[in-house]
């Protein structure tokens, strides 16, 4: 469902993107080319700051927002998801937040008030809150990363983890093309 926010902003979805009919996009949301937005995802850019301003939620080209993902932002702050990035099932991305290119965010993970640079992997049920994660870092499942985390103790993304991330992105790009061919059948 594509709908306006109370201020009247309407999402802009590139014609080459696929948004599942059960997903909800509300307000100042920009979806770029070849993006897959899965069933029951919710992307809401509807809260304003004290001056009535809203920054957009931008989903970069060739990225995928999987089933049940929630993307929202506090007081109109920006949320940017880079290109070829995967946000896996039931993850929460709450702005302000910037996620770089070629990033993998695992099932049920939570991102808030953070920057995650290019080619990072955040595995399942992890939390990244209030910090800047430099490019190429690996966050293990169930780990919590915050401002006090010693990033020198975090591993770097391995070749296997990088290959897995690329495969997820590639698979979901194929889903975009597949669902676009049958979208008038449902």
From TrEMBL:
Supply the Pfam families for this chain: Hexapep
Instruction: List, alphabetically, the InterPro entries matched.
Output: CA_gamma_LbH (IPR047223), Gamma-CA (IPR052265), Hexapep (IPR001451), Trimer_LpxA-like_sf (IPR011004)
Q: Which Gene3D superfamilies does this entry report, sorted A to Z?
A: Hexapeptide repeat proteins (2.160.10.10)
- The source's superkingdom equals Bacteria
Family according to the record: Belongs to the gamma-class carbonic anhydrase family.
- Its recorded name reads Carbonate dehydratase
User: What is the scientific name of the source organism?
Assistant: Tistrella mobilis
